[in-house]
Amino acid sequence: MSVLVVGSIALDHVKTPVEEHAELLGGSASYAAVAASFFSPVNLVGVVGSDFPKRHVDYFGQRRIDLAGLQTVEGKTFRWSGEYHWDLNTRETRSVELNVFEHFSPELPASYTDTPYVLLANIAPKLQSHVLDQINEAKFVIADTMDLWISIAKDDLLALLKRVDMLILNDGEARQLTGETSLIRAGGAIRRMGPKYVAIKKGEHGSLLFGENAFFSCGAYPLEDIHDPTGAGDTFAGGLAGYLASLDNGPVTFERLRKAVVYGSVLASYNVEAFSLERLRSLTCQDLEQRYRSFKLMSHFEVLD
Ligand code: AMP
């Protein structure tokens, strides 16, 4: 089955304590769509400017990513610039140029309105709701968000939460949204806002999955060298959604979501090994399976008798 991915498509400028690169392919939808395409076909909805390099569009096309929902508008592509601190877990946004993103309205081609899995990657919650208005009946809807929307569009976000099956956000955002310091309390509080499932990402410390009377704690795959953490969350969400869509037509259960979270984490661990989407370009399904297996071995322990 296919996954509909809507979000930002960007040209990023990223600075880490050791390297700096500009004009990189980025954006929440770029990472999420490529990650999902490791498991399932993707329908992509987004906007780029007339300056967007053709090679990036070709790359999407070479993966299982349908581009009927990609709008190209006269003007400049959305640009984002960020700088990481020494721990590579915290960063500052240096600049944002909305450009063609400013007047973006995600419009779904008729061929997309029955896509069973929907991933609303990080964009304004009003736009995420506008996508849901055009969907006939989705099997499972996942939304991602960021601190900016919790600060400036909280009411829109709360309205969206009543319409989605799962919310993915990071630890700081979960605390900001709920006012809780405990992430365990925050997970429960967000479930009460609407989504049946919540995944809270903790950067290099893994993620937490919350369901009805169900909880799963997933570590992060241990890496010696992290080059660029940008897009790790979007890759996690895309991998998770793509894996779910690759399964048979049965219901989305907590057990399936546990495995989806692990696949999302494995994909994200590869993504941070290089800038932009470079590591995902050379990644194979065999690489994924191999890391999944070693991750399982290092996370497993027996219940004491
Ligand atoms: P992440 O590292 O998961 O937070 O995602 C980083 C990506 O999000 C970058 O490639 C940016 O281009 C994109 N991004 C940054 N700010 C925004 C925004 N306000 N709306 C949509 N996408 C954004």
Would you give an account of this structure?
- With 305 residues, the chain is an alpha/beta fold.
- Helix content is 37%, strand content 25%.
- The chain has eleven helices and 13 strands.
- The chain has helices at residues 28-36, 54-62, 125-134, 147-152, 154-161, 171-178, 183-192, 232-246, 254-271, 278-282, 285-299, and strands spanning 3-6, 10-15, 20-26, 42-49, 65-73, 78-84, 91-97, 117-120, 140-144, 166-170, 197-201, 207-211, 214-218.
- The strands form two sheets. It has a nine-stranded mixed beta sheet, sandwiched between helices.
- Helix 1 (28-36) runs parallel beside helix 8 (232-246), helix 8 crosses helix 9 (254-271) and helix 9 (254-271) crosses helix 11 (285-299).
- The model has no long low-confidence stretch (mean pLDDT 97).
- The structure holds adenosine monophosphate.
- Adenosine monophosphate binds next to strand 2 and helix 8.
- The site of adenosine monophosphate has 15 residues, from strand 2 and helix 8.
